[in-house]
Design brief:
alpha+beta; 2,3-Dihydroxybiphenyl 1,2-Dioxygenase, domain 1; eight-stranded mixed sheet; 6 helices
């Protein structure tokens, strides 16, 4: 499968700015807002690639019906997703399916989206969320994120 290890964790918080301040002060993490990725799900998103942390919180007015509302109501703030880096998304998703985990959401950003919204850090950005929360206690995401070579600036 070409497993690359943990890429990052996603932490659900009630207040995005407070969450960013917590991990910035504790770890020195540098966050970049990526709200466009969460808007369809009613969440605000900020990522600290240097710390391997993605923070999400309900958008104002979506505290009850966002993609993280039920998690926050039942479990409180905490790790909601672990992103595992993979070399080949199709192979990784097929392996997960054989183990009984279906992909319930997938995305594959274009290079224009990567350049516009993700500071051009990658040449490939794919994610597959698995239906793992009940069995694992969190959502497992398979992430093929191919970094842009340093010389490609």
């Amino acid at each position: 499968m070409g497993l690359r290890g943990v890429n990052r964790i996603m932490i659900a918080v009630r207040d995005l700015e407070q969450g960013k301040a917590l991990y910035r002060d504790m770890l020195g993490a540098t966050f970049e807002d990526a709200h466009w990725t969460g808007e369809p799900f009613g969440i605000l998103v900020s990522i600290a690639w240097d710390a391997g942390i993605e923070i999400c919180a309900p958008m104002p007015g979506r505290e009850v019906d966002s993609a993280v509302s039920a998690f926050l109501a039942h479990r409180g703030e905490g790790i909601i997703t672990v992103f595992f880096g993979v070399d080949d998304s199709e192979t990784a998703v097929a392996r997960a399916a054989r183990a009984g985990f279906a992909s319930v959401h997938a995305l594959d950003y274009t290079q224009d989206e990567i350049d516009t919204h993700l500071s051009g850090y990658f040449t490939r950005y794919q994610e597959n969320m698995l239906d793992s929360a009940e069995r694992c206690g969190f959502t497992v995401a398979l992430a093929r994120l191919d970094p842009r070579p340093a010389s490609a600036g």
